Amino acid sequence: MHELEMLIASKCFCWNSITQIQSPPPIFSLPAPIPQWSQGQGFASGFVNLGEIEVFKVTRFEFIWSSNAILDTKKVLTFYKPVGIPDSFHILGHYCQPTDKPLRGFVLVAREVEDRLPKTTDIDNHNKIPPLRNPLDFELVWSPNVGSLEFTSVGGYFWLPQPPEGYKALGYMVTNKPDKPKLDEMCCVRADLTDECDPYCLMLSSSSGTPELSFQVWNLRPCDRGMLGKGVSVGTFFCSSGLNLGDELPIACLKNLNSSLPAMPNMQQIHALINHYGPTVFFHPEEVYLPSSVAWFFNNGAMLYRKGTSTGEGIDTAGSNLPGGGTNDGQFWIDLPSDDRKNFIKRGDLKSARLYVHVKPALGGTFTDIAMWVFCPFNGPATLKVGITNIPLSKVGEHVGDWEHFTLRICNFNGELYSIYFSQHSGGEWVDAHDLEYIDGNKAIVYSSKCGHASYPHPGTYIQGSSKLGVGIRNDAAHSSFYVDSSIWYEIVAAEYLGDVVTEPQWLQFMREWGPKIVYDSKAELDKIINSLPLMLQCSMKNLLNKFPMELYGEEGPTGPKEKNNWLQDERW
Length: 573
What we know:
This is Putative vacuolar protein sorting-associated protein. It is built from 5 helices and 39 strands.
């Protein structure tokens, strides 16, 4: 799938001038081949039209330079030049990644679109200066030889292109010689076709008492992300020597001005993607509060309550009598029935469970996010871990109506699974495809934690609190016979970019809480636990509990998927 052209014979020189031979990192491929996707628009065509420019994803690289491999190898970065550039495309910047990770990154290359744009684009291409131009010069940002009397012929040299007026640089060039790159080796992009980007995830930091000798490297992501965001990640990096991150970045990302989003999958392709990549969700072997379908929840006694009335109203199978739209104003909520059905509904119904799917553009339509929502009628109580002691909590964490999700990020250039986001209470994490567990071909495993239903990529005990101290709320995830195969048991409930192709269910429009406000004295329960601890731990424990999300205390019922921030916004990185 991916190819690598390494200059194995090249030498890597560390910052202390010690030479080493650079070994190629392993190249990651998914466990099974990617199928031939059905034809339709521009999905998986290899190219994405952004308006006045078209971009191509490059995954073949040539080694240039690596940071000091004598130091901690987990902090070593390797820098690459993209190769195998299609005719008429231009390099926008170079690529880097940690040396200990499989090679699976990308950078975008670009070319000018010759044909006049369709009316659906957001730009007027009359009387515009060219979208791409070579830089006027290159400025040396940093080299390990900075500070020496003269540059040596070895080492890494980081060059920032100096764009013409009205243009932006989108990346850096890295060389292993002190000579400036040739101006025609890369292009800058017209400013109105770019957007601001955000440095995140510091990958490398070399501190020094002399500012010009220090060096930092960050990943980059567009500032304008989310379902409606136009920012496009180029795959390049940001580096600096002593720059304050409060300053304006000298580089940008791309902006997708093609509002038709031609690279997004159609309905047939969406089903094919879910059938091929849909993960299997494993619940803990001791899980009591299993998922169910929304229809099962309604049919078995869920009640709609209105503020000011004590009697609830039954909800029909489709939720058509739920008030739609508006905001979470506290006027309505859902609760369990007060009769004998209550405990029965709490336990869910695994055989009816399904994943509710929201498909949306990501990173300016160059990726597709397939958010998969699972519904559990009840969220069980938490367990507090203090060192080797586990303390079951009787109420803390309980609430009616639990919505959790994970998100598959699919590359629209080739239809490949790029990463999965695992939602975990008030946060979560993106996990690259090479760090996932797979159960069947390219179908990953998602582990749902006991009682709380947070999502994790691997089995184990995860501490919500201080893992270093071993103090916090336990999240236990394990393989079991309780599972849901999302590649089979799913329902697509929303895909706004497709217009009226997907009819959203009425229950999705319910913006109020899927559980009542629970009032109990959680403080008394927690104070009792804190007071039983050694004095040296009591203060730390109080501070730790104050940082827990409010949802853990069950004070408010949870809202449905459409009220969550990530419905429109990007996941919390």
